[in-house]
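FIELD: query
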Amino acid sequence: MDTSLYAALGLGFVLGIRHAIDADHLAAVSTLVSQHRSLTRTCLLGTFWGLGHTVALLAAGVATIALRVNIPAGLERSLEQVVGCMLILLGAHVLVKLLAEWGLHTHGVANEERSHRHADARSEDAPRHAHAHLLRVGRRPFIVGVVHGMAGSAALMLLVAAALPSPLGAFLYILVFGIGSTLGMLLLSGLIGLPFALAAEWSSRGLALIQAIAGVISGGLGLTLLWSLS
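FIELD: result
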C-alpha cells in the first residue's frame, strides 16, 4: 500500500472515533446504558453498537462500491426519520420502565424479597445461560447501530471511500472507519455508564433521576430530528 492509502486509513480511523460521539449516537447509547449498572455490560453495549454500525457500513459499501448502486436521497431521509423515531422509542422505553420499577417499589418489602430470590436464581443459572444472555444484551444495541450506520453522516464516509483509487482500499477504509467508531463507542459507553454505576451505589433516587434525564434527552432529540426533516 502506498503512503496516501495509509494516510487515508489513518484519517478514517480518527473520523470513525469522531463519528461515535455524534449527538444522536450518544443519546441512543445513553438510553441503553442507563438500564444497566455494570461497567462491563455498558462497554459491551457500546461494542455491539459499533459492530452493528460497521456491518451496516460494509453492506452499504458493497452496494455503493462493488455493485455501483447509488443510495437515493429519499432513502437517506427516510433512514434519518427512522433514527428520530427510534430515539423517541428508546427514551419512552426508559421512562416507562422507570415508572414501572418505582411502582413495584411501592408494594413493600415482600416484593423486594421475591426480587432478590429471583436474582439469586438467575445468578445460579448464569453459567448455563451466559451465551444466550450475551446475545439478549447485545441484540438491541446491535440493531440500533445498524440503523445509525445506514443514516446520517455515514453517507459522507461512503463518498470518501468511493473516491479511493481501488475497491480494496475503499473497503479497508470502511473497515478501519468502523473499527474506529466501535472503539470510540466502547470507551464512551464506559464513560457514560460510570455515573449510572456510581448513582446505583449511592442512591436509587439519584439513579432514577439520571435515567429519566437520559430518556427525556433521547426523546427530545428524536422529536427535534423529526421536526428538522419535516
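FIELD: remark
Residues 109-149 form the longest helix (41 residues).
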